[in-house]
């Protein structure tokens, strides 16, 4: 299989998995690691970059979301937006280290945009969280633990 297809597919799957799309990148990553044809380090880097950039999409949506809060189709009430803002104010940008976690990671990255977290802080913390997660996951698959 072409390296562009393999790494490109992993990148796109990881990017989509970081958004609100119902995608799991771990299945593809597991299969690629178990094939033993590709560098695990390269796989972790590609998955981490894709997943981090997917979180930037959430951040950008959060940054723009208040423009649409009065629209009928808007998925959150003003009360829900305020609760998210209060939660993010309480725990701050350090909560982005949990951006890897299922169910809370995506809303966290959206809340960071809503709260106007500077992109550079967002990128550093989210990249750390995503990379550590993929590295530990890969180590687990390889039987290191």
Key attributes of the depicted protein:
single chain, 145 residues, mainly alpha, 68% helix, elongated
How many helical stretches?
A: 6
The biggest beta sheet is recorded as: none
Number of strands: 0
Strand content: under 5%
Low-confidence regions: none
Description:
The structure is a single chain. By secondary structure, this protein is mainly alpha-helical. The chain has one domain. Helices cover 68% and strands 0% of the residues. The chain has helices spanning 3-17, 25-35, 40-64, 78-91, 105-114, 119-141. 30% of the residues are buried.
Briefly, what is this?
The chain is mostly helical and 145 residues long. It has helices at 3-17, 25-35, 40-64, 78-91, 105-114, 119-141.
How do the strands and helices of this protein lay out in sequence?
Layout: H1 3-17, H2 25-35, H3 40-64, H4 78-91, H5 105-114, H6 119-141
